[in-house]
Design brief:
Strand content: 15-25%
Number of domains: 1
CATH architecture: 3-Layer(aba) Sandwich
Shape: globular
CATH class: Alpha Beta
Order of helices and strands: HHHEEHHEHHEHEEHE
Bound molecules: zinc ion
Helix content: 25-40%
Oligomer: single chain
Largest sheet: 5 strands, mixed
Length: 234
């Protein structure tokens, strides 16, 4: 799976000479010490992060004990996530490392999760994109919380056009979309799981994933999304 690669400094300098790097958001030329975003865009991103008191979300989702979100979606974060998903710039996820560290420190329960699990993408999407951004985020969370990633969930069918649906329509559209991969049937029993995704909209996807894990015997399920859309935007 492609992900953030670390090149030796001399090799990176050579590559940058041949292929100058630009900011993933504003296209400003980056110097050799800069990666991903320019200073201005990075500062904008840091300023956008929710204050610590808001990272633990007040949203109530069925079957989920704690909901965590780090950024408002309608912002530079939307541009970043769009660049990751639709322009293949998966390395830009590294810009969220600091925020995920904050989550790791804040969520005192985090080290006690048995597993981190990402919301899976359908195979069609995965083949087109060549990565699942939720899984890459889950790997980052895994390193921070020292909790193993288990890709327990399988997405059984493609669910296009979700963005135009309201909460109820989404729930109907998503019913039964996930299944537990058979090899995790005995692993999941009585375990606590942190589900990770890139965006929280209505919460229907998170609830459906949680229902699948709870049906399989999980004891506790929390949910972490990088960004949350404002309820008014739905
Ligand atoms: Zn920039």
């Amino acid at each position: 799976m492609p992900f953030i690669q670390e090149w030796p400094a001399y090799l990176e300098a050579l590559i940058r000479l041949l292929y100058p790097a630009t900011c993933g958001l504003c296209s400003e030329m980056l110097n050799l010490q800069q990666r991903g975003l320019c200073k201005h865009c990075r500062n904008d991103l840091v300023a956008l992060q929710y204050p610590i008191s808001k990272i633990k979300n007040e949203l109530s989702l069925t079957g989920i004990e704690n909901v965590w979100t780090l950024f408002p979606y309608e912002s530079t974060v939307r541009d970043l996530i769009t660049a990751v998903k639709f322009s293949g710039k998966h390395w830009l996820l590294k810009e969220f490392s600091q925020s995920l560290q904050t989550f790791g420190m804040l969520a005192s329960d985090a080290p006690s999760y048995d597993f981190v699990a990402s919301i899976p993408s359908h195979v069609t999407t995965y083949v087109q994109r060549e990565f699942n951004q939720a899984d890459l985020l889950a790997q980052m969370v895994s390193k921070i919380t020292r909790t193993p990633v288990k890709n327990m969930l399988h997405k059984k069918f493609h669910t296009p056009h979700q963005s135009r649906l309201n909460r109820r329509e989404r729930a109907v559209n998503l019913w039964g979309v996930f299944s537990l991969r058979p090899k995790y049937r005995s692993v999941i029993l009585d375990k606590s799981v942190l589900i990770v995704d890139d965006i929280l909209t209505t919460g229907s996807t998170a609830e459906e994933a949680a229902r699948c894990l709870a049906d399989a015997g999980a004891a506790k399920i929390d949910f972490l999304a990088l960004a949350r859309t404002e309820p008014a935007a739905l």
